[in-house]
Specification:
Length: about 260
């Protein structure tokens, strides 16, 4: 240790002479210990931030990156709790269903009452035709004659064109469309919306397709990995098998690459 120090000191002295600059004054071991203790008490770096999180080899480059990975939305704020399989909210969902059923029943009764009132104001003649209240057959016939329009020459009307109706999409087609959108979900709002859309399509088969899709990220699209990680973190709270299978798939991939390298 002493020989290494002397060799380093001689090199520094030689460099100082060649540069015509004095050697810097370095702190002793006791001074370094005091400065480390002071730094530990303050808990902040020169820039005034937390030295454990930002800069100096910390986990996050900035505050925005920290919030991206740590501030994860809760799906129950955007999706009905029954969709997420939360048993504690079954009573609340049942009450909502009963309230909707009661309102629908009242609406039907109101329509029936209005229809009965309209029928009570009409009369039916011998031929079974419905007559407005207060008119005879002759008056109705005269009204019908007056209402007949005089024919005028004109161009024939074109028959309305029928537009082709799209076939309804099932869960499988919706999931395929969602997976096709994932490579373009390169910001926080898009990936959060993808998580909400997947929650409505949630099933065991859908989760397996999602895990398989995210395990096949192209090598030139490493920019997708942080967004896929956020998607897994959002879903993992209510679908823990997604995170478990993703970790297992990554572990198998790492072990395969390690064996391939050793061979």
């Amino acid at each position: 240790m002493t020989k290494s120090y002397e060799k380093l000191l001689a090199s520094c002295q030689s460099l100082s002479e060649q540069l015509y600059l004095p050697m810097p004054t370095l702190k002793t071991a006791s001074q370094k210990a005091e400065s480390i203790q002071i730094g530990m008490n303050t808990g902040s770096n020169i820039l005034g931030g937390d030295s454990e999180e930002f800069g100096g080899g910390g986990k996050w480059e900035d505050e925005e990156e920290r919030r991206f990975f740590e501030e994860i939305p809760d799906l129950k704020d955007y999706v009905p709790r029954s969709v997420l399989g939360l048993e504690g909210d079954a009573d609340e969902d049942r009450e909502d269903g009963q309230e909707k059923e009661r309102k629908e029943k009242e609406r039907v009764e109101e329509e029936v009452r209005k229809l009965e009132e309209e029928l009570a104001e009409m009369k039916v003649d011998e031929d079974g035709r419905v007559l407005p209240n207060g008119k005879t057959n002759g008056e109705v016939a005269d009204d019908n004659v007056d209402d007949v329009p005089t024919p005028t020459p004109g161009t024939p009307k074109e028959s309305p064109t029928t537009t082709p109706q799209l076939a309804p999409q099932g869960p499988s087609q919706l999931l395929t469309a969602l997976l096709a959108r994932l490579p373009d979900a390169t910001n926080r709002s898009l990936i959060d919306q993808a998580a909400v859309d997947f929650a409505f399509l949630n099933s065991k088969a859908a989760r397996k397709r999602l895990v398989k899709f995210m395990g096949q990220v192209p090598k030139n699209r490493s920019d997708l990995l942080p967004h896929y990680a956020r998607l897994v973190a959002i879903l993992n709270r209510y679908m823990p098998d997604v995170g478990t299978e993703i970790v297992a798939a990554l572990d198998d991939e790492f072990r395969y690459l390690q064996r391939k390298k050793n061979v």
